[in-house]
Sequence to fold (296 residues):
Amino acid sequence: MRSLHLAGPEDAEKLLKLQSDFHTEIGIDSDADHRLQAIAPLLDGSPHGAIWLIGPRRAPVGYIAVTFTWSLEFGGLEGVIDELFIRPKVRKRGMGGEALSGIVKSLAEAGVRALSLEVDMTDDATQRLYRRNHFLPREGYQTMTRLL
Amino acid sequence: MRSLHLAGPEDAEKLLKLQSDFHTEIGIDSDADHRLQAIAPLLDGSPHGAIWLIGPRRAPVGYIAVTFTWSLEFGGLEGVIDELFIRPKVRKRGMGGEALSGIVKSLAEAGVRALSLEVDMTDDATQRLYRRNHFLPREGYQTMTRLL
Fold:
C-alpha cells in the first residue's frame, strides 16, 4: 500500500502532532514528554511494536500504532492496534479501512497470527469499521488490569 | 518468592504436562507439537514473554505464563497473564495468589508498568482471585480479533 509508511525516529515530530490531536479529540490529557517517551522505542525498532504513517510521508493525515505480544493459543505473535487516527478533515473517504487492509496484509506476510484491539462498546462507528474488516468481537470476556 | 522459578528449555517437558492438564480441564483441544512450538520461544528468552513454574522446580504444581506488549498509554511494557494453572489437588491453599504477588513484585522491579488479563465474565472464582490482588475490570470495552 503506497500510503502507509513505517515511521522512524525522523518522523517523531509529525507523529507527536497527530497524536496530540487524537488525544485532545478523545479527551486524554497526555503531555508531549510522556508521549515521546512512549513512542520513541517503537520508532527505534523495538520488537514490541511499530507505527505507520497514513498518507503522504511528508504530510501524513493519520497513523496506526500496532504493538506485538505473544499468544500461546495461536502459537505466535499477535498484533494489537493500540491507536488508529485519521484527521477529521479527511474522514469518510475509506482511508481507515484502506490502512487496516494494508496493515493486515503486511503483518500476515510477516507471520503474525492475529490482530486485535479493544473497542469502546458504545462506539458504533468504530465497531462497524472493524466488523467490515473481518474483526469479530470476543464476547463474554473482560480485561482486568493492575497498575504496577 | 522461593516457589516461583523462571522456566528454561530444560523445563519444557514438565511444563507441557501441566499445560496439557490445564487445557483438558478448560476444554481446549491442543496438541503437544503446537504447544511446544508456542512455549519454546518463551523458554529460550524471547522478549515477548516468560513462564514461571510454581512450587518446587523438580515437581512443580502449576505455572504462570506472562506475555509482554507495549502500552502507549502507560509509556512502557505491559504484561498480560496468558495462562495461570494450579493442579486441582493443591488448590484453595493460596498458591495462586502467592504466585500472583511474586510475579507482580518481580515485574514491577523490572519496570513493567501494568499487568492485565482477560477473564471469563461468568467465572466468579477467577474474578475474585484477581480482585483480591488489586486488578480492576476495564468496563465498557470489548476485544475484537481478526485471525491472519
User: Anything to note?
Assistant: The domain at 4-132 of chain B is CATH 3.40.630.30 (Aminopeptidase). Chain B touches chain A through 60 residues (CB under 8 Å). Residues 15 and 109 of chain B are 25 Å apart (CA to CA).
